[in-house]
User: What shape does this take?
Amino acid sequence: MKRKTKQTLFLVFVAVFVIGVILFFVFRDKKNSSSSHYQENERKDIVEYGGKKYRYNEHLSNYVFIGVDTREPVTEYETNKEIGRADAIFLLSYDRVKKTVRCVSIPRDTMTNVRMIAPDGTDMGTSIEHINMQYVFGDGKEESCRLMKETISELFYGIPIQGYLSLNMDGIAVAVDVLGNVEMVLADNSLEDVNSEYVQGAKIIVTKDNAEQIVRYRDVDKTQSALVRTNRQKLFMKAVSERAREMNTQDTDFIVKMNENLKPYIVTNIGKDVMVDLLKAKFDSETGVVDLPGDGVEGERYDEYHIDELEVYELVLQMFYEEV
Amino acid sequence: MKKRILITVGSLFIIIGVVVGGVGLKNHIEEKNAGKFYEDLKVDMDIEPIVKLPTADSQQMENPIDFDSLTAKYPDIYAWIRIPGTRVDYPIVQREGDNNYYLNHTIDGKRKAEGAIYTEDYNSKDFEDANTIIYGHNMKNGSMFKALHKYKDKQFMLDNSEIYIYQKDKVLKYKIFAAYLYDNRHLMLSFDFEDKNIFRNYLNNVLTKRDIRSNINTKVEVTADDRIITLSTCNNNKAQRYLVQAVLLSIQE
Assistant: This one.
C-alpha cells in the first residue's frame, strides 16, 4: 500500500514536470513569434507570381551553346582581335529525371547587361550592350564562355547554368562531315541569293561544303536579317541534333569521334557522359526550341533585339520553375 | 526529500510556463489588435475609407484628409499615405529630435509594437528630396507596412502600382517601379541622393537588377532628375529589408 502510493506520487510528479516543460516551450515559442513583428518563416526559394507560388526545378541542368564567328582554331588565339563574336546562342535545359531537353534561342542582338572587362583584366562594370559582344570581353576560350554563361544566367533572372560549349565557324563543316548528310527544310527565301534552288520549302542536304553558308549567310543590308538567320540556325540545330541522335544509336563511339574531330574548334566544360545524355534526351514536345520573347528594333547603328521583360520572366517561371 | 525536490522543480516549471505564457498572450492580443488605433482614427476623423481597387485618378486626387483638425490633435502628422489595392492608408509622422520614437510608439504617444508610419529627419517633410524613406512595421495581422510584401508578386505590383501622398493643400501621385529585398543598411546614411551622379548610379543599379525575386518595372521612366520615395519594412530576418520604390508623377496643388 505504502509502496503503491509512493509510485503514484512519483508518476504524478513526473507528469507535472513533463507538462511544465512542455508548457514552457509552447509559450516560449508563442512569445517569440508574436512579440516580434517578423512574419512567419517564409521559404527563401519561393517565387510568387499571379497569386501562385513557384520553386526552382532542381532536376534541371542548363547549358549554353555558342557559335562563334571566327576561323582560327581555338589554340591559336593570340590577341583580342582574333576573338570572334558569339553569333548563335542557345540555352539548353536538360531535365535529368524526365530525360527531356528544352532549348531557347537567344538572338545575338539581344540588348542586356554585358560585363565589360578592360584589356588588363579590370572589371569595368556592366552596360546594356549586344549580348554577342560579351564573348569578346574574354579570352576567346574558357573566360569568354564563362562570361557568356554568367550574362545569360542574369538574362534569365539568375538561373544556374552548369556548362558551356562554344564552337567556331570551321567546326561547323567538320561536324557536318562527321555526321554525314544532314537534311533540313528551308522556312524562308533568305538563301536564294546563295543558290537559286534554296527557296522556302526546299529540302536541302547540308554538307561540309555548304554548311557554313547555310548557317552564317545573311544580307547585311536588310534590317533584322540576323533574326531571319537565327530562325535558320534553329532549323539547322534541330536537323543536326536529330542526325547526331541517330548516329549515336548506330555508333557507340560517335561522341568520341565527334570530340576528336572537333577538338581544335571547341571550348567546353561539358563531359562526354553529359553529351551522351543530351543526345539521348527527347525534345520536350510542348515547347521544343523557343525564341527569347522580344522584338527586333532598328538601333542607332546596329539592329537591336529588345526583350519583353514580362514575357521573359514568365518564360523563366514556366521553363525552370515548378508550381508548389 | 526526493518528493520535495520533485514538487519544487515541477511547480517551478509550471510557474515559468504560466508567466512566459502570460507575456506571450499579452503580446499576442496586442499583435492581433495592431493598427486598431489607426482604424479608429480614420473613423473619428471622418476619413473616407480606402477604395479597395485602383480607381480613376480624379477620385484619388481629391484630398480626403482634414489636416487642420488632425495636426491639432497629433502635431507630428505631416502627410498621409494611401496605396489603392492594399490596406496601406496611414498618417505619416516625423518626430523632432528622436528618429526612433515612432518605431515603437503610435502617434498618440502610446508604446505599442506597431509604432507608426514615419520618416526620419534625414528627410525634409515636403517630399522634395531625391529619395524620401518611409518606414513601417511588418505586422503579422496585416496592418502597417505588411502589405508591402504583396509586391513580391510581380503581377500584383503591375496591377497595383499607384501611391498617393496627401499633404495640406497638395496631392502627390507616385508610380511604383521597384520592389525587392535589400540589405539592412541605412539608405540615407549610405548614399548622398542629392548628388546627381550618386543618385544616377544608384537608380541604374536598381533598374538593371535581374533577379527572379526582384520586381523591377523598366517601363516606368525614372531618372536622376526625378524624386522618389522608398517604403521600407522588415523582412523575416534582421539582415534584410523589403523595399518598395515609387517615382513622383504629378503634384496637384
